[in-house]
Amino acid sequence: MLNSKLQRIKELIQEKEKVDCELAQLIGESEKPKRGRRKKEDDPPAATQNSA
User: Fold this and answer.
1) Which of 10, 17, 23, 50 is the most buried (most CB within 10 A)?
2) Contact assessment for residue 31 and residue 24, using Cβ atoms and an 8 Å cutoff
3) What pLDDT is attached to residue 40?
């Protein structure tokens, strides 16, 4: 039951993002940065190495 509610919440959020994007295009707003965490990239940044 909880999983189905969470899935529905995710679906509604995705629909809202689509509607917001289309409205912004129709109104002529500038593109806003996406909210939320950044996706992990395939190549993580190299860790700094200390010379010993």
Assistant:
1) 17
2) yes
3) 76
Which distant-in-sequence residues (6+ apart) come within 8 Å of 32 by Cβ? 24
| C-alpha 26 chain-centroid distance | 21
pLDDT at 29: 75
The predicted-structure confidence for 3-39, as pLDDT tens digits, reads as follows 999 999 999 999 999 999 999 889 887 555 666 777 7
Residues 17 and 24: beta-carbon distance below 8 Å: no
Distance CA 36, CA 20 (A): 15
Q: Are 18 and 10 in contact (CB under 8 A)?
A: no
